[in-house]
Every structure is written in C-alpha cells, then in structure tokens.
Amino acid sequence: MATEREPPPLGDAKQTDFMELEDGEDLFISTASTLESSPTSPEPASLPAEDICSYSNGPQPAEISLDDDREDLFAEATEEVSLDSPEREPILSDEQSPAITPVTPTALVTPRVEPKSISVPAMFERSKEELEEEANGDSFDMEIVVSDPEKVGDGMNAYMAYKVTTKTSLTIFNENEFSVKRRFSDFLGLHSKLATKYMHIGYIVPPAPEKSIVGMTKVKVGKEDLSSTEFVEKRRAALERYLERTVKHPTLLHDRDVMQFLESSELPRAVSTQALSGAGILRMVNKAAEAVNKMTIKMNESDAWFEEKQQQFENLDQQLRKLHTSVESLVYHRKELSVNTAAFAKSAAMLGNSEDHTALSRALSQLAEVEEKIDQLHQEQAYADFYLFAELLSDYVRLLTAVKGVFDQRMKTWQKWQDAQAMLQKKREAESKLQFANKPDKLQQAKDEIREEIEEWEGKVQQGERDFEQISKTIRKEVGRFETERVRDFKTVIIKYLESLVQTQQQLIKYWEAFLPEAKAIA
Amino acid sequence: FKKKPRAVNVDLQTDATLQVDISDALSERDKVKFTVHTKSTLPNFKQNEFSVVRQHEEFIWLHESFVENEEYAGYIIPPAPPRPDFDASREKLQKLGEGEGSVTKEEFTKMKQELEAEYLAIFKKTVAMHEVFLCRVAAHPVLRKDMNFHVFLEYNQDLSVRGKNKKEKLEDFFKNVVKSADGVLVAGVKDVDDFFEHEKTFLLEYHNRVKDASAKSDKMIRSHKNTADDVNRIASTLYTLGTQDSTDVGKFFLKISELFEKTRKIEARVAADKDLKLADLLKYYLRESQAAKDLLYRRGRSLVDYENANKALDKARAKNKDVLQAETSQQICCQKFEKISEYAKQELIDFKTRRVAAFRKNLVELAELELKHAKVNLLLSRQTL
C-alpha cells in the first residue's frame, strides 16, 4: 500500500473523470462527487482488514492543512490510479465513449503540484452543491429495469444472468439507454465495493439482496417448478429495487463503480463475494471482531440528536421485524385459503353434478365457478401482499441494519480520535520527561524524535476530530435523506396495496352479484 | 344468553297447533341447559304454554326412542343434534391466559374479545341445531303425536336419562357394525320400484359428495379465519408503529391500522357467515341424507324380510306345514313393507323439496351477505385512500 502514496508514472490510467478539463460542469461534478465521496483511501474489496491508522493521509497533506475536499482529491487520485489500472485497462478499449482522450498523468499531477491554488477547491465546493441541486432539483430522470432472467451454463456452475436496462437523460452517462447482462455475484460485488468506500464515512449504503444457497441450488439443478420460478422472480424484483435505491442516492449515483456496473458490458468477476472464499471467511471474522469492539466502546455522546435517533431506529427496527413476520404469515394463510377454496370449488361442482334437481344443480355449479374465481382472486391478493408489503418491510429491516452500521462507524471514528488524543498525551508526557532527563548527548536526538512524533500525533488528532465532525455531518444528512425516502416509500407502497385491496373487493362484488340471480332462480 | 327462535336450515310451516322453540340457554361448565318452550292448542297438554329445561342427553334419548320405534320405520327420523363442543374454544382461552405476559395489553384484550365472540358463535350454533331438531319433529304429522315427545316437552322434572355406560356403548358399537354390514347386503338387492332404486343410487352418491364438500368448506373457512387473525396482528403492530413514528408516515400507519381493524372484523364475519350458511347447511344435509339412507335401509331390510317370508311361505305350502304361521308372518312383512314404502316415498319427496328450499334460502343469503360485506370493505378501503 505504500506505493499508493507516490503518483506512479502511468500513462495509461483511465482518466475519464479528468478528461475534457475544458468541458463545463459535467466533468467537475463527476469528479467532485467521486473525490468528495472518498476522502480517505478505501481498501480494495479483498483486503478489509487494513490497519486503520494508515488511513490518514501521509505527512504531506497534513502539513498543507487543506480542507477535506482537497485531501480527497489527492487520496482519491492516487487510489483510483492504482486500483483501476489493472482492471480498467481492458475495459477502456471496449467503451465507446467518443470523447475520451487518455489524459496523461500530468493532468493528474497538475493539481497536486499546485496545492495552494484556491480555485480548485472553490470550484469543487461549488460543484458539490451544484451536484446536489441537480440530484434534488429537477426530476430525477433515471429508470432501471432488471429483466429477462436467463439460466447460463449447467449444473453447479450455472447461474442466472439478468438484463439490467437503464434509461436516463442524465449527462454523466454516455448514452440515454443501455443495457448489460449481470449476474447475482456482480450485484454483491458492487455492494461490497460501495460499502467499503462509503460506509465508514457515514453514508448509508443500500444493502444488497441476500444470498440463498437453497434457492439457487434448486435453480442450478434445473428444477422447473413453481417455487424456483417464484424464487427467481423474487430475486429479480429485489435486485431491481436494490439498484433503484442505490442510484437514488446522489453520491452513489456518480460513483464510478456504479456507473461502470450499469454501463460496461464486461465486468471482472467479483470472486470475493462467494460465501466460502477466503475473503468471505475473512469478512465473517472481521464482523465478529467488530461486534466485540462495538460492545467495548463507550462513547460520551455530546449530541443528543444522535442518541435520540439511535433509539428511534431501534424501535423502528423492532416493530418492522414484527410487522414483517405478521405479513409473511398473512401471505402464507392467504395462499392456503386460495388452495382450500379451489378444493371446495371442485367439491361443490361434484355435488352439483349429483344433484338431480336441475335448478339447484345449476346453482351449485355456478357456486363452484364463483368460488374458483374467488380462489384466483385470493392468490393474486397474496402476491400483492407479498411483493408490495412484505418485501418492502424486509428491505427496510436490512436498510436499518445499514443505518445502525453507520452509527457504529461514527463511534469507531470517535474512538480513533480519542485514541489519537491519548497517544498525543503520552508523547507530550514523554517529551516533558525528556526535559528532565540528564543524558545530554542523546537528549537532542531524542528530543527531535519526540518533537516529530508529537507533531505527527497532533496531526492525527486534528484529523480524527475532523473525521468525526465530518462523519457526524454526513450522518445527519444521510439520516434526513433516509427519513424522506422512508416516508415516500411507505406511502407509495401502502397506497398501492390499498388499491389492490379495493380491486379485490370490487371483483368479489362482481362475482357474487352474478351468482345471486342464479341462487334466486332455484324453484 | 337470550335467543330468538331461528330456523336455520329448514323451511317449516308455522303451525299454530304446536310450536316449539328454545327460548333460552345457559352454559354451565361442561353442559348446556336448554329451555324448551312450547305453545300448543292441542288437547293432550295440560297447559297452552309451558317451558322445561332439557339437556343434550335428553334430546339424544328422544331421538333414539324414535329410531327404535318400529312404527316409525317408514319415516326419515330427523337427525339428532350434535353434541355441544366447546373444547376447542376452551383450549384457546386457556392458552391465551397462559400467554398473557407475552403480548401487549391491547392485543390481549382484543384476542380475548375474539375468543369470547367465537365461544358465543359456537353456543348459538348448538342452540340452533337443537331447536331445528325439535321443530322438525313438531312439523312431522306423525312424529309430533309421539308420546315420548310430549313427555319431553311437558314433564318438568328431570327425565333422568343417563348417558350410556360403557357396556351399552359397546353394544351400540357392535350394533352399528352389524348394521353397516347388513346395509351393504341390503343395498345390493335390486329394488322392484324404479323410484326407490333411483333414490338409492342418488342418495349414496349425494351423501358422499356432501361429506366431501362439508369437509372442504370447513377447511376453507378455517383458512379464512386465519387470515383474519393475521390482519388483526398486523393492525396492532401498525398501531404501535404509528404511535412511535412522528413523521407523516405515523399518521398513515394509524389510519391503516384502523382500516385493518375494521376489515378484519368484516373478514371474520364473512368467514362466520360462510360457516353458517354454507358449512352448516352442508353438515345438516349430511346428517339428513344419512337419515334418509337409514330409511332406505330399513325399507330394504323389510323388503328382504318380506321376500324371505314369501320364500318361507312357499316352502311351507310345499311341505304343507305351518302354513298358517308362514302366511301370517308373510302378511305382516308384506304390510310392513308396503307401509314403509308408502311413507318412504312421501318422505323422500318431502326431503327433496326441503333440501332444495333450504339450499336456495341459504345460497341466496350467503350471496347477499358476501355482497354486503364486500361493499362495506370496499367503502372502507376507498375512504382510507
């Protein structure tokens, strides 16, 4: 990772972001967003267990004491270069972005060389706001559809490929409409990348749909029955919702990984998402470690807002889980009802057959028909219950986990800050001790060393404080956005659900009204 | 529990000479006491209007006395009412009491209310069934004159009808086995009369199908009740969510919670109505068709006896021994057979008419109720939107 600190002499780095420096807003918006969003070098997906301290940028930016954005620029620049070059290379050639001219590193280097040019951060600042305006102001014009699940391959190596079609008028994309083929692990890979990049600075990254070994095995093995079709449909819908949520987030939308995911036809296989891979196990170990850590961190909450919100989310989580269970039970029972109604319909038809009074016989057959239609109705209602209601609830339960994770990150950041402060204190004490030591020849050297260390730790403390404030600010914003989203989501879904209920009742009325004269006609 | 008279499944002619109903019923621990109220202008009774208290066992006694009476062999004996069964309900109440700590106060009160409503419904049903039995007897031109029936109606002391003890129950069991075996034998005999032959095949098939339909409708209704229960739980969770949430969504949730509460009540009502109109109808006709089958069996039995007696007579005539005896017995069988046949024909025709009318009434009512509920449901949903 040390190599990341120097700008490697790459002449081939993909610099779509930095292209067309002369082009107006677009460039800067995308740049700003990508830069702003990763202030500290994110770890590549496969090595999550990185020493936290190495986050803080090296001594150079610390001295310059720029505001966050500038540091972002540097860190991001270096990071992007090293991360992307091996992967993005082949992709570059495929993309038909007409105006790309591979920009030489000089463009990269230029802003670096002039760290004091005020114009840069100013522009970034402005464009960051513009970016947000663009995301919130005009109608968010982007439609993503996940469709056409197709089984590729055979046996245990088979997988489902989904078509992801994007229709948009946003200018950050090269075309207005494009589609790619993706498989489930691609989605997981995307989420994994986004999570590592954004979670620890306070962004709520929408969680990806869950793995299901049982479900997938059935599909792989080739069972063509109802449950596997349902499973595929459930997954397809979940993937669609996942993408929609991700792009609704203004920062995530402009993330290069997201854009690449939507646009490029070939994506490197995200192997580290496999449950049993080395990375997977590493992830699980880390999760356990984090959980333990969480319990030991005791934070002095200076801001009541956070405490309130956390409590609120706890309650919400609890209730949503309960609701989700109840709704699932409802879906199950409604399906059962539909099955039983169908059985009854058949039975009533038989009864009608054996009845020798003609009018009654006819009426009974009619009854059987009515009941059959009703059973269909019940089934449809069950589907509505499920896809609208239950899935929304489970999405939100998972989202809340992400939200809680973000709060935890804040705690971790605070802890880092405090640790840095503690270290600083220790170093200061060491320094003052040295003052009173009596080994004159070594003293100067030791004093210098200590001085250096103290400065280093002072920087870290400041960084820690800034990080903490940054994450707090981000979280506030994110929570606000989450709440708005939540309100909107629930409202839409509930209205849709009510409409489905209304429709069911209307159909019921129609059927029974048709039956009534038949029943009356029994003489 | 006060109750108004209600003829659930049977169309009865209201006959002023003898009117019977169950005016009151009391539920005690594990028995139910019915107050049988009679209004009559018949001279046999001491008063014109009187009431007695009867228990389920006494109804069964009455029914048995009919069945065992040879005179009534030619009639469809109205099926006995089923035993009042509160076990399931009681179990649930107990479970609820045990699980009191695990649910919120509101949920508990709600569930308790539901269970009480269920208990009440079962109670009403059993009262209705007992009443129907009595009314059928009272409406039957011959059975209504039965001595036992009058005693049942009038004697205001306990009839001291004890439930069958184990020995008697065992006897009954064997009797039934013999009877069903015999029934198969008898059924195999082809009947001379087309009408009866047709009725036999018809009843057999019909009975089976009704049994099937009854079972399936029960299952269906149970599922329906389950969904109503689920909606109930959802409603209360939504309510909690709504009170917790301070945003707009909170108000939303509260409203939806209300809606679900109401729809749940309606759905429960739909299930209950279906139960009443459809399931009960089917169950009742299950029992009636069984009674009709029994009638046919008796007739079939008497036919076989008659034929046997004929054979015996021929044999006796051939041997010229005991001819008179054989003749008399043959005469008796013949009479019996003809009497039964005569009555049975009428009975079966009545049965059909009754059945058709009952089905018509119930299906119409079912449809109307379903419509009503659906409309209310629709209205509520629309309003909330």
UniProtKB/TrEMBL annotation, chain B:
Keywords: Protein transport, Transport. Gene3D superfamilies: Arfaptin homology (AH) domain/BAR domain, Phox-like domain. Pfam families: PX (PF00787), Vps5 (PF09325). Residues 12-159 form the PX domain. Belongs to the sorting nexin family. This is SNX6 protein. The lineage of its organism: Eukaryota, Metazoa, Chordata, Craniata, Vertebrata.
